[in-house]
Specification:
The chain is globular and about 50 Å long. By secondary structure, the chain is an alpha/beta fold. The chain starts with a strand and ends with a helix. α1 runs parallel beside α2, α3 packs parallel to α4 and α4 packs parallel to α5. The protein has a seven-stranded parallel beta sheet with strand order 3-2-1-4-5-6-7, with helices on both faces. β2, α2 and β3 form a beta-alpha-beta unit.
Length: about 230
């Protein structure tokens, strides 16, 4: 069975992806900071009959990242690495003039530095896979100038650039940065708590990620709504 590592997998998009891959027979290594919620997710996903290793921890911890890859190795390797764990930098979001430097540092550590560190840890196994792929979860805030989204957007822009360069440096892999678009997640609610407009559920964009795995287009940046619509 193919093996995937998914960070930030206890809820939202991470959990939705885990459910979809498990339904397809993937074995999974799941990461999140919250132990109880991660166990609940792992138990639900394992109901599909696949093997699931759930490791609570912080992706900024090098030892935790090594543990995730070691768990995947025990399952057979790494065929897919999904960097989904994210930090906002401030909750709720604030303008750059008020953004705590420590908050920006945290966003960069989680969204960029940890993502690269995990790729580096998993790279030997990804190269051994017949269909190795890396997915980084991006954001339109990394490409557009939205008020109060400066710190988070800067981290996602940096992540996009890392993914683009990795795709060039590792032509044997597929490296996809995916902008999922607006979703009803706890992350968004924490970012803009006063915004109660309805948004799509994370499950609605999962077909975009599955399409990438099925069709394996060239490495690059993709928008989930366009993929779902077949464009």
């Amino acid at each position: 069975m193919p093996v995937a590592i998914i960070t930030g997998a206890s809820k939202g998009l991470g959990r939705a992806l885990a459910e979809a891959l498990a339904a397809r027979g993937w074995d999974l290594v799941l990461d999140a900071r919250g132990t109880a919620l991660l166990k609940e997710t792992a138990d639900a996903v394992a109901g599909h009959g696949t093997r699931v290793a759930a490791l609570p921890g912080d992706v900024t911890d090098a030892g935790h990242r090594a543990g995730l890859v070691a768990a995947a190795r025990e399952l057979g390797g790494v065929d897919l690495l999904v960097s989904n764990a994210s930090a906002l930098g401030a909750e709720p979001l604030v303008r750059l003039g008020e953004l705590p430097v420590a908050g920006l540092r945290r966003a960069l550590e989680v969204n960029v530095v940890a993502a690269l560190g995990l790729v580096q840890e998993a790279l030997p196994l990804l190269r051994e896979s017949a269909a190795g792929a890396v997915v980084t979860v991006s954001s339109d805030a990394g490409a557009e100038a939205y008020e109060t989204w400066g710190g988070y957007g800067a981290s996602k822009a940096a992540l996009d650039q890392l993914a683009a360069v990795l795709g060039v440096e590792e032509p044997g892999l597929r490296v996809w940065a995916v902008d999922p678009g607006d979703m009803a997640t706890e992350l968004y609610a924490a970012a803009v708590p006063d915004d109660d407009d309805p948004r799509p559920a994370p499950e609605s964009v999962v077909p975009a990620f599955l399409r990438l795995l099925d069709e394996r287009p060239a490495s690059g940046r993709y928008g989930a709504p366009a993929l779902v619509e077949g464009r």
